[in-house]
Amino acid sequence: MTTGVLPGWVDFPGAEWARITPSDAGLDVDAWTEFLGSRKVGAESWEGEEHDETQYGCVLTRAGRILHVWGNPDYMAQSASLGKAFTWAAFGLAVDAGLVSPDDLVLDTWTGEGQLSDEHKRLDRGHHLKLKWRHLLGLKDGYGHDGGFPVTNGYYWRRRSSGQMKSQANLASPEWANWTGDPSYDNYSHVEPGTQRIYSSGGMWRMSQALTALWGDDLKNVLDRRLFGPIGISADRWTWTPGRSVHDDPTWYPEMPGYGDFLDPPYEIGGHPVRGGGGWAVMTPLDLARFGHLVATGGIWEGERVIGDDWLRGHHGGNASQVSGEGVHFTAMGRVATSGVDHLGGEGRDPAVPLNLFVREPGLS
Question: Which of 347, 304, 309 is nearest to 327 (CA)?
Fold first, then answer.
């Protein structure tokens, strides 16, 4: 590991988080108080997944200390697409270890021969012959979601929709895709990779399968050993739902029956469960904020680099979960099933925490 230099006021949580007052955090205190009063923060229930008013939590940090908590900071529930950020990190650790490059062909690691359910899905067939790892990665700096995989989830694909939420359900499947109505059969590269971009949990699932083959290990074990352990998240404090469990539960989202139908076999590779892909990590807001703080520091923890900055990103889950961090003010957020507040904001998202309220550097005591 290499040493990284950060501002001297950036702290790191030990076994427990320290706290920081709004004044010590460098906030315009009056504006911050007004902001808090303007937010109606509470539990978010999504697509039939119910959370009551005790079942949500959000943690906002600055400089490695807790600034504010909404709800229950220890609340745990599956966090939808948020886990894509962990899949990205598992790939980045493989790059850092010299196991792979983003421009390598995926078939050089794994073809799926004898494991994928249909011959046309094999990564040494059809358009997959040009499929690189970068094509499957989530959106960041020109990487990803352009592997030609058009399937977002089983519920929408059966309805010939490429929508990611019900407000988008009228969006037709892309013209370049060969729609059969079967989300499992159709989970493959329909066009030459790099030519069409569309958000695709199906493509991320294929990446998780190939990444499990690359590591020869459960991706949760990889993250526990190489990333989460070093930043203080013990293996018993989180889970990562295997794809088989999501596939086999037709009521994963009760109002989206068959959501997981796109998750095709293999569900184990080398005896290891395949996880990641679409997300479904289960972690507390407190621990999500640790990962968010790592994003903010660019992969540095206690003066040591634990992962390359290129492989860290935040992500939202459709059920109002979030992990994020930014390295200007060194703020981070972890939230689970919480509506009414966002960290960095974005189109179609809840109002963001206004970072312009941070008017000076923190003073830590």
Answer: 309
Q: Which two tokens stand for residue 147?
A: 């592997």
Name every residue whose Cβ is closer than 8 Å to that of residue 79 and which is 6 or more positions away in sequence: 279, 280, 281, 282, 283, 288, 317, 319, 321, 323, 336
* Bond preceding residue 266 cis, omega within 30 of 0: yes
Domain count, the chain: 2
**Residue 110 structure tokens:** 């794994």
Residues 6+ apart with CB under 8 A from 225: none
DSSP 44: -
Model pTM above 0.85: yes
- Among residues 153, 203, 144, 192, the alpha carbon closest in space to that of 173 is found at 153
Structure confidence by residue, pLDDT tens digits, 299-315:
999 999 999 999 999 99
Residues 210, 110: contact at Cβ < 8 Å? yes
The residues near 284 (Cβ < 8 Å, ≥ 6 apart) are 57, 73, 74, 75, 76, 237, 238, 334, 336
Provide φ and ψ at 179, rounded to 5°: -85, 125
Is residue 321 in some structural domain? yes
Do 173 and 126 lie in one domain? The reply is yes
Q: What is the per-residue pLDDT across 108-159, written as a single tens digit (0 to 9) for each?
A: 999 999 999 999 999 999 999 999 999 999 765 566 799 999 999 999 999 9
